[in-house]
Amino acid sequence: MITLILSTTGAIISTWAAPKNKIWNISIAQVSIIFFISCFLYSGTNNIYWNYLSSILATDSLSTPLIVLSCWLMVVTLLASINSVSNSSALNQRMFITFNLVILIALIITFSSTNLIMFFIAFEATLIPTLLLISRWGMQKERIEASYYFVFYTLISSLPLLIGLIVIYLNDHNTNIVLIFWNPSLLVSPTLTLFCIVAFLVKVPIFSFHLWLPKAHVEAPVAGSMILAAILLKMGGYGFIRLYSFFWAPLTNNITPFLVFFCCWGGVLTSLICITQTDLKSLIAYSSVSHMSFMIAGVATGTEWGLKASIIIMIAHGIVSSALFALANLFYERSGTRTLLINRSLKATIGLLPLFWLIFVVANLGLPPLPNAVGELLAFSSIFNWSIISYFPISLGVVLTSIFSLSVYQFLNSGWAHKWNVINSNINERENLMITLHFIPLIGLIFAPNFIS
């Protein structure tokens, strides 16, 4: 962990020391090296127990895939951002890359911290650089409103979590995740549980806590959208799983009966909202809310299948949602709009895009044997086992997810091109590499699922 953190810090320093014409080359090369270093974390994760354990940092089979996903995402995020940021001043370029790398450091500490207070600080540390990415490099004036939503939703929900962690510390004089797992507190109550989990439910987010997400996604630059969808949403799921064993009794007895049904029906309602969307990025953002709602419902059942399903869904969704935002950005850079109707039939001039869209759209709707399908089957099985009544909202959610996913493909890759969107520019090597770097891990997880389960 210390190696990864120091390597990322070195990448920030070299970004400011690099000559103007080499900023992106040096940054992407260094982040790629950081990703390869992070892959060595798998050398110790042969079981479910803690590895590389120290007084403040450690990894296990839950945190290791998320750390590797974070390091991988930074490579494709910087690749996707070159076209939109490289025309600005050298100072702007360096600041943009620095904010992304600061987010990476915060993510590594969040996923590897063994102390709940440090986890909370790193959890909230991603707020400021993400806010700056949205407000400074967003495309439209509505980005200021989106920033307000993002800040106030996150801060208001995080205050109860901070109060809950302070109460736990004052009572037990201990906030170590490893020790708490073996020695649960006697202080746990339904009120304290709600205080602690609401921050994670907003960060995921589930339906009704999601209003900040579409605004932030739509107004953020492509880097902000990819980081939000692929990683920052997973921090909520990670925190919820981490604290689940600590709050086992009040969750299973008092909160789970409401939370599971609320998440299942929330996923259905969000899928309905997706069908009505005309903005491509907004549609992808709402689909993330739908998938994450079903993921939280699976975890809330408290079964081993639900836990494994949540990890698989988080990793698979991180790859697929990042790819969808990257593809949406390719269209936006060429047409100047995110409206589905206007972007119709760009495939007439950009030959490989229909194939890329087909792969990631069917992954998003959960077609076997892609990892999304495996995770959702496990999650749905655990929810059915918990309550057979949930069969109806889940089946309805699956149908609606298929409808809006295939509608996106049909809208963007069929019909005749309109006169206003005939664009003679095929995708270049950088964009091909960016999509291929999403495609390889998605297909690789079909043959090596043990990396995330």
Automatic annotation (TrEMBL):
Keywords: Electron transport, Membrane, Mitochondrion, NAD, Respiratory chain, Translocase, Transmembrane, Transmembrane helix, Transport, Ubiquinone. GO terms for cellular component: mitochondrial membrane. GO terms for biological process: ATP synthesis coupled electron transport; electron transport coupled proton transport. It is found in: Mitochondrion membrane. It holds the Pfam family Oxidored_q5_N. It is a multi-pass membrane protein. Its main location: mitochondrion. The chain crosses the membrane at residues 23-43, 63-82, 94-111, 117-134, 146-170, 190-213, 225-249, 255-276, 283-303, 309-332, 344-363, 383-412, 433-452. Residues 113-400 form the NADH:quinone oxidoreductase/Mrp antiporter transmembrane domain. It catalyses: a ubiquinone + NADH + 5 H(+)(in) = a ubiquinol + NAD(+) + 4 H(+)(out). The keyword Nucleus does not apply. GO terms for molecular function: NADH dehydrogenase (ubiquinone) activity; NADH dehydrogenase activity; ubiquinone binding. Belongs to the complex I subunit 4 family. Core subunit of the mitochondrial membrane respiratory chain NADH dehydrogenase (Complex I) which catalyzes electron transfer from NADH through the respiratory chain, using ubiquinone as an electron acceptor. Essential for the catalytic activity and assembly of complex I. This is NADH-ubiquinone oxidoreductase chain 4. It comes from Ophionotus victoriae. The gene is nad4.
